[in-house]
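Write out this protein's structure.
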Amino acid sequence: DIYGGYMLEDLDNNNVPELIVQGMMDNNTVFFILDHELRTSIVPGEILYNGEDIRNNFEELQNRLAFISDEKRFFTDMSIKDNIDMMSIFYDEWDNELFYGKLKEWGIPVGRKLSDMSRGEYLKFQLALSMGHNATLYILDEATAGMDPVFRREFFNILHELMVNEDITILMSTHIEEEIEMHMDYKVLLDGGRLISCDEVEV
């Protein structure tokens, strides 16, 4: 087992509703497994999406899943526009107007190379990309770690707007207790890959 026996169990739509969640996830191993499996398909066991193994449902999942992190998974020596010109053809419901509209709203030049973007701009670029292909499941891996309070407030305003206007689910890992208390609807606790609790956050 390349992940040292790590297994994710008992986590499904019945016990994790549509929400913004906090996951305490063994150094984010769960998110690593999800992302790695989507790109390599060599992880042992099953990862189900809408009840179907993602290996058999990859095209739909590619359209519906947004994985947002610090990892440089794009062509960083190319501009935003050049990246999108190549990637957008792989999405069934790509919305050019929405994507570029969000970049304009957030003040991010489309000609900027990804390598020249700040960390905050890079996260917003990924959010705009996710909106552009009509993602319904957002997975955010420590997206606000190390960011200043002003950016975190703006970032969560964007997420809350998404939750209000779109039928989406957001899974987010964070170690910032203030984010849990102020922005999360539920918090999920995992131990060794097993679901320990899924509780509503008290306001």
